[in-house]
Automatic annotation (TrEMBL), chain A:
Protein's name in the database: Uncharacterized protein
Organism of this sequence: Adhaeretor mobilis
Automatic annotation (TrEMBL), chain B:
InterPro entries attached to this UniProt entry: UPF0324_pro
PANTHER family: INNER MEMBRANE PROTEIN YEIH-RELATED, UPF0324 MEMBRANE PROTEIN FN0533
Source superkingdom: Bacteria
Chain intervals for the UniProt region annotation (Disordered): 31-51
Protein's recorded name: Sulfate exporter family transporter
Amino acid sequence: MSKNAAGVVRLAAASLVLGLIWCVALPQFAATPRMHARIEWLEERGIDPSAMYYTELEAMRPILRRLEGHGTGVCSRD
Amino acid sequence: MYRSGSTPPHGEVGLLNLAANHISNNIEPTRQSQFVNDTNSPASESPEPHRSDVRVSEDWLAIWCAGILLIISLAAVWLSVPDEFTARSTAGEEVSLTSPLKGWLGKPGKWTESPVDAFYRPATETLPATNTLWGIGGVFVVIAVLFAVATRIHGASAGAFLKAFPLVFLLATLAYTMAGQTVVKAYNLEYALWALLVGLVISNTIGTPTWLKPAVLTEFYIKTGLVLLGAEVLMSRLMALGVPGIFVAWVVTPIVLVTTYIFGQKVLKIPSKSLNMVISADMSVCGVSAAIATAAACKAKKEELSLAIGLSLSFTVVMMIIMPAVIKATGMSEILGGAWLGGTIDSTGAVAAAGATLGDRALEVAATVKMIQNILIGVTAFCVAIYWVTFVERDPTGQRPGISEVWHRFPKFVLGFIGASILFSLLHANLAGGPEIVDAMISGSTKTLRGWFFCLAFVSIGLGTNFQALMPYFRGGKPLMLYAFGQTLNLTLTLLMAWLMFEVVFRETVQGVMP
């Protein structure tokens, strides 16, 4: 088998594995009662555990509104 | 590779070099590391550009590109502000603003059963239909046009870039779609990881085609994304938790960062200073975003950034599950537990998920401590860049470089990052309705674009990386030992400081604010 053909076969195999994981295994895992409950729980609270920065976190909005509505920070409220 | 004593300033290596990105398997310990710039390109040997060329150097182009995007994004919100907005906002009334660009800039959404849902989801009884295709198309057009012009200004072929960019963008879209699966999201497996994987699969099977390389602009994507990120680093939110928050996030964090770095150099004797620094920063500050900023500031190799992110995400998954259990088992208060989580778990989203497990107060404290730590990114990147050009990159005679040399070598995009942070912090704090305007700009446009730039960067890293190049980093397990040492120190010091601040010194005040 030529080098190019071997590369194409490897790419197809990798794509197949990834496709099976994402399109079959993960949806099935998401449907298990425990995982389903976990996903619902996170969505209800506006939490995206994969958020990289605080601006990507929906749950941060009410927190900031409350803290900024108070004025400054904790210690200024003596 | 840069020759000793003739290191060009960071960012002066052209887009052409990056476009010609060859894979460097050379990880010679003492070599002058350079962020994502691969080193076999003949163009790397070209003489230093004139100082007058600085206007079109990559760093400055990144600042220009991000600056244009920030101006347009701010103007779009500004011009759409309703007449009565300022009066209502000044009166303390809650007014929400939305950027008119929001519908035109998007990314694949989350999905559970079918990846098609990431792009289009028909209306249900409770939810309206969603279509992210327009938004994705909008981002594609914006970045393609902007970078084609930048590429042309830099002297490379805009046509070659435009020919290659659609596929690189498609791979980034695939990575975002993989990251959008709800199980993947629930375990904090960020898009950076999947972007890297998608690129690695291509480069390690069929190989990255030559015609694709003009759009494999890792460093340029990252620098532009970082300047955009600067607008999200709002110093005005630094005092959100007052003095206790500052002590937990801004006193412990630098101590852990510096100690871990010194430990890596003196005890573990990690050959690559940049790897040592990137791991120290991503472990002590806030994970992937800090790793990206620090890697760019200290010119780490792409493999080093990949390794640091892999370590961070692996530990984060474990910590977000174990730490709440430990906190509950020990009977720690929600506030102390939240502060501990916020100061130690790397990733912002994982902090929130772990905090929410303990309760609403823990979520609030944890997320706010992490936010304050997020803001430290700018200062960290600036200090690391200064340290690098002043101490690490000084010539072999040991002579400290003068001010002009420091300026010459300094990664200029960091100035754009800091400048955006200062400007938008001032607007956020002083403008009438500033918080609403700046928040609408960030959530409606710049946050989305910044995410795409980082995603494109990680796809590019994957496309330029050979698995074999990663292997030597795992030998001896030093990066793992460094991370474990740093995180242990972080856990100990943060717990101590959080207990002192939230349970002893400011106990009554904190209880009053968070009953």
